[in-house]
Amino acid sequence: MSLPPPPPRKVVHVDMDAFYASVEQRDDPSLRGKPVVVAWRGARSVVCAASYEARRFGVRSAMPAVRAERLCPQAVFVPPDFTRYKAVSKQVREIFARHTDLIEPLSLDEAYLDVTVTKTGLATATETAEAIRAAIREETQLTASAGVAPNKFLAKIASDFRKPDGLFVVRPHQVLAFLEPLPVGRLPGVGKVMEGKLAQLGVTTVGDLRALRVEELEQRFGRWGQRLHELSLGIDEHPVQSERPTMQISAEDTFEHDLLLEELEPHIRRLAEKAWAGYEREQASSPGRLARTVVLKLKTSDFRTLTRSLTPPQRPESLQQLADIACELRARVELPDRTRYRLVGVGLSGFVAADSAAAQEDLFG
User: Superkingdom of the source (predicted)?
Assistant: First the structure.
């Protein structure tokens, strides 16, 4: 006797609207209606968030603060207060938890929720999303946008369609038509480089991508070609993960003055101490998982980001080993010696189960 198929998955992606800036406007009525930029002023600062009034001038998150000031000279700059933002985020998570335990946070201001089965017994995922948005508005005086769809990537795309303070639903029978006209860059993992490669094939929309044979995509892009084909059809089987395992532990710092590569060693060793302390805390809470890869992150004075990593035969077992490997990774940076750097970061990644780590070390030993 065969078991009945599981019910179709129902996923909600909830995204708070201009979160940090909205918290500031809520808490200081004099900021309401004004272009608010959450950032420290100065040449080395970047924008954490921008209100919708500031976005009309082209101000965006992660933009250098000096550029934001040029685009919007009348902007009100407010230094970030992450303690307050985390407190509001906790409020919102508690609202989510009334409806489902399957919550996958992406950041302080957004999360996936699997509402295939809910605690409340509401009849549809749409009703659940509306109830969540109403509770957020009532209890935090903030707004959230939501997307409802059969999987995560579709729900995330959908949540952008009615921003701010909106809801967009993609039902299973609407998936292909919904995706067809979208720019291919809306698909997860398709960045500017991949967009350019696809454009060379005459592919600019998801519909164009769907028209290509999967064999051609695999020939050009390997396994990623198969993934592109599945995304073009709206297929994504990744579940909502309520407890996402740690992927990387890192520490980074932006310098007051740009430095040459040869001047970075003391800063790399200082940041390695922070990263190793974080790793030891992770070990205390999850002793069965070990990191095997050392990562060095750099950002040049013109905001170009580079990462270099190494997975040695024997995993790093001390702060000294972590710091030494991170310093050695500078040799893999193939930029002119005169290049200056504004940021450096050190991290540990490649987490595996302890027994798996031991087996891999035996293999390479």
Answer: Bacteria
**Where do we find the tokens 């309520």?**
242
17 is in an annotated binding site: no
If you classify domain 175-232 with CATH, what class do you get?
A: mainly alpha
Measured CA distances, 228 to 58, 68, 94, 160, 217 (Å): 31, 35, 35, 21, 8
Instruction: Report the distance separating Cα 260 and Cα 16, nearest Å.
Output: 39
CB 149 within 8 A of CB 170: yes
Report the b/e string of 85-101 with b at 16+ CB within 10 A. Answer: beebbeebeebbeebbe
Q: Mind listing the pLDDT tens digit for each residue in 45-93?
A: 889 899 999 999 999 988 889 999 999 999 999 999 989 999 999 999 9
Using alpha carbons, list the distances in angstroms from residue 337 to 57, 82, 308, 333: 37, 37, 17, 10
Edge-first strand order for the sheet with 293-300 is 248-260, 340-349, 293-300, 305-310
Domain residue ranges in the chain: 19-81, 175-232, 248-364
Identity at 50, one-letter amino acid code: A
Please list the active-site residues: 110
Asked whether residue 15 is marked as a ligand-binding residue, the answer is yes
Which two structure tokens, joined as six digits, stand for 21? 């800036």
pLDDT in tens, 325-346: 999 999 999 999 999 999 999 9
Architecture of domain 248-364: 2-Layer Sandwich (3.30)
